[in-house]
């Protein structure tokens, strides 16, 4: 029985081997006869034994790039494409930066950052991400790395685009006050990461020491209207101290649980005034590198699609591209190249679709598209025929009465809601400093029909120095988030945010400056009210 079983297994192995051999012969014939499927940009079909390295011009025969050529920029800008020029030699001079910079400007959170800048750019004090470098296949990059004597740590650079010991890391290791250089031939096209690989390599990377090196293929990619660089970073930091400084959290680093995940080094690098812009009818190309340290990225454009994807940023001409993708996976230390077409005016959100990273940790970018509407592609039909008007409360006056509830109440005043008396707590005078005031989020406050009595009181007047406490007396989770809401979508201003307040939970905030402060509930944006500080 055992002998028969062994013979059967041997027969199966022979069949598998024969099938593999047959497939190999078919592929070989297809390659030799030109019968294989081909990429539009090349008539060649690469096999496993072919080299995709172009004929290399001897180093001694290479011309130096003109001084006017640009081979390095700062994200999101990228240097101009190489085009179909000849191979050449070009110079890059990098300088290492150590300093303290913001990673979450809205909340004034900073951390100690190590990074890279172009030599001489003394106004660049936060070198994370590092400059975007660019050449073409066959070029020789002459790279100089300087570690100023004002720094405190040794550093180096591992270029994923470089073929040589450690990607050049060993040869570029510099202690403070030293300069080192390498000459490296660029052999493969793509969008590559570079990073510091000295000492505690993970720490050097998560402190911001990484960047992007674009190597153009011998056959240039097609023309586009815009090219941008986007790099995803993870920040393993603790709660910020009283000065807003968030130190490195080594336990979070070991657990691979970053507090922040950002595009291009900070939470606002690609949003609001820093948003990318294009017009209807234009095509953009994004070179994206996931600097890690640990997590794969799920790169997605909310409100659009990737018209073209070069998987793993491998842009050699015979590699298969993907057309019409919703999300593309980018491994840690890897990249992708994607293209997007602007069809209708909108704001496309660039996200990591592991959406906790976007909504809670900062991985958000915006592409603002302007131009004419195209009803053949998209038409919106707002609720109740409102023609796109925002849902707002009836009446703009802060003293409007809804039912029996006055919408403005001073601390210590009594009001009646649905026949029940409520009193804002403890202060006899709204102008009394350091008074305590309370606001209830009553039962069924989440119902849209109860929007005008979602808070008791709706609009409260307090004195400077008053601590206001909100209590969730409803059955659902709510937030108390400063900012304006049109009844459908809120815009937080970053002043205060409770996060989720469970039923029975509370949130308190002290108002130290006079003014009128609007707030709303994130999951129920029709719930909105104000605090007036006098």
Structure description:
- There is one protein chain.
- With 534 residues, the chain is mostly beta strands.
- It is 9% helix and 37% strand.
- It has 4 helices and 34 strands.
- It has helices at residues 2-33, 201-206, 250-255, 356-359; strands at 63-64, 72-73, 88-104, 109-118, 132-136, 140-147, 158-159, 178-185, 190-195, 210-216, 226-235, 260-263, 276-279, 283-292, 297-302, 306-310, 322-325, 328-330, 335-341, 346-352, 364-370, 401-402, 405-406, 408-410, 414-417, 420-423, 436-441, 459-462, 466-472, 481-485, 490-497, 506-511, 515-520, 528-533.
- It has a 6-stranded mixed β-sheet, with no helix packed on it.
- The radius of gyration is 30 Å and the shape is globular.
- Residues 1-7, 10-47 and 385-434 have low confidence and may be disordered.
């Amino acid at each position: 029985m055992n002998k028969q079983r062994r013979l059967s297994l041997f027969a199966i192995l022979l069949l598998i081997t024969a099938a593999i051999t047959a497939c190999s012969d078919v592929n070989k014939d297809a390659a030799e006869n030109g019968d294989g499927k081909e990429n539009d940009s090349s008539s060649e079909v690469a096999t496993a034994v072919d080299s995709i390295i172009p004929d290399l011009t001897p180093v001694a025969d290479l011309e130096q790039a003109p001084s006017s050529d640009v081979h390095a920029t700062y994200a999101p800008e990228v240097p101009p494409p190489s085009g179909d020029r000849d191979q050449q030699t070009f110079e890059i001079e990098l300088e290492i930066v150590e300093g303290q910079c913001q990673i979450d400007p809205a909340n004034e959170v900073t951390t100690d950052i190590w990074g890279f800048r172009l030599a001489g750019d003394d106004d660049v004090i936060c070198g994370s991400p590092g400059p975007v470098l660019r050449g073409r296949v066959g070029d020789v990059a002459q790279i100089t790395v300087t570690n100023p004597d004002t720094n405190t740590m040794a550093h180096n650079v591992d270029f994923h685009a470089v073929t040589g010991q450690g990607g050049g890391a060993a040869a570029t290791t510099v202690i403070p006050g030293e300069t080192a250089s390498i000459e490296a031939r660029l052999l493969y096209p793509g969008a590559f990461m570079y990073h510091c690989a000295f000492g505690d390599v993970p720490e050097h990377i998560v402190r911001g020491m990484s960047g992007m090196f674009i190597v153009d293929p011998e056959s240039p990619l097609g023309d586009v209207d815009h090219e941008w660089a986007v790099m995803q970073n993870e920040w393993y930091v603790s709660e910020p101290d009283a000065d807003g400084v968030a130190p490195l959290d080594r336990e979070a680093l070991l657990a691979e649980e970053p507090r922040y995940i950002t595009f291009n080094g900070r939470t606002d690098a690609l949003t609001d005034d820093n948003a990318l812009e294009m017009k209807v009818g234009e095509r953009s190309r994004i070179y994206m590198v996931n600097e890690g340290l640990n997590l794969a990225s799920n790169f997605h454009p909310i409100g659009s699609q990737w018209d073209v994807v070069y998987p793993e940023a491998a842009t050699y001409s015979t590699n298969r591209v993907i057309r019409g993708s919703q999300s593309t996976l980018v491994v840690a230390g890897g990249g992708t190249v994607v293209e997007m077409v602007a069809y209708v005016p909108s704001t496309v959100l660039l996200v990591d679709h592991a959406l906790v990273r976007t909504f809670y940790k900062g991985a958000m970018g915006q592409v603002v598209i302007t131009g004419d509407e195209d009803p053949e592609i998209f038409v919106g039909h707002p609720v109740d025929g409102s023609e796109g008007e925002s849902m707002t409360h009836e009446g703009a006056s802060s003293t409007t009465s809804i039912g029996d509830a006055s919408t403005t109440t001073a601390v210590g005043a009594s009001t009646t809601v649905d026949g029940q008396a409520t009193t804002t707590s403890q202060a006899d005078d709204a102008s009394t400093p350091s008074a305590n005031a309370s606001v209830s989020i009553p039962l069924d406050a989440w119902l849209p029909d109860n929007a005008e009595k979602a808070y008791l009181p709706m609009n409260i007047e307090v004195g400077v120095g008053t601590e206001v406490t909100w209590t969730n007396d409803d059955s659902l989770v709510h937030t108390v988030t400063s900012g304006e809401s049109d009844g459908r979508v809120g815009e937080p201003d970053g002043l205060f945010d409770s996060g989720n307040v469970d039923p029975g939970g509370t949130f308190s905030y002290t108002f130290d400056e006079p003014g009128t402060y609007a707030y709303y509930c994130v999951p129920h944006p029709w719930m909105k009210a104000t605090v007036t500080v006098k």
